[in-house]
Design brief:
Oligomer: single chain
Number of strands: 4
Largest sheet: 4 strands, antiparallel
CATH architecture of the largest domain: 2-Layer Sandwich
Helix content: 40-55%
Number of helices: 5
Radius of gyration: 21 Å
Strand content: 25-35%
Structural class: alpha+beta
CATH superfamily of the largest domain: ACT-like. Chain A, domain 2
Strand order of the largest sheet: 2-3-1-4
CATH class of the largest domain: Alpha Beta
CATH topology of the largest domain: Alpha-Beta Plaits
């Protein structure tokens, strides 16, 4: 995103004093140069969420973060089976063990918003899943594999 003055639009807003104070604290704690940068980030996140809800066929990329109880491998097996059912959408996954017999799994996903929602719903339905959050963006991964179109005459040879 360009930050040239001609590419920016000014926004004026009023906030309750306590919310304004909390915003300034957040800007300071994140070490951001301005409120504008934080507000732009929050708006981008809200727009991606809105797009996922209102445009189910639009392509999104993002992560699904899951915290679940150990369950003796049963939960991990069900998570793996569910991810296999959504093989086109799940790009990769990372798993770590946490304290108190819990695990954290992060999935890198991309696909139509409706499919990502279905995946989240299927994962949430697994007994033992304690937390699940999809964080999406409208920026997409480049195609992982380009399929070469082979002319029928060459394919038959």
């Amino acid at each position: 995103m360009s930050t040239e003055p001609s590419r920016l639009a000014r926004l004026s807003m009023s906030l309750p004093a306590e919310l304004f104070r909390q915003l300034d604290v957040m800007v300071e704690e994140r070490g951001l140069p301005s409120r504008s940068q934080l507000i732009a980030e929050l708006i981008r996140h809200a727009l991606a969420e809105h797009e996922a809800l209102t445009r189910p066929e639009d392509m999104l990329a993002g992560t699904i973060t899951i915290v679940y109880a150990g369950g003796g491998g049963r939960v991990r097996q069900q998570l793996a089976e569910t991810q296999t059912a959504y093989l086109k959408e799940v790009i990769s996954s990372q798993h770590v063990f946490l304290e108190q017999d819990q695990s954290l799994e992060v999935l890198l996903v991309q696909g139509p918003a409706v499919r990502l929602k279905q995946l989240c719903d299927a994962l949430r339905a697994i007994r033992g899943v304690k937390q699940l959050q999809l964080v999406s963006t409208t920026a997409l991964l480049p195609p992982l594999h380009e399929q070469d179109v082979v002319p029928a005459s060459e394919a038959a040879a």
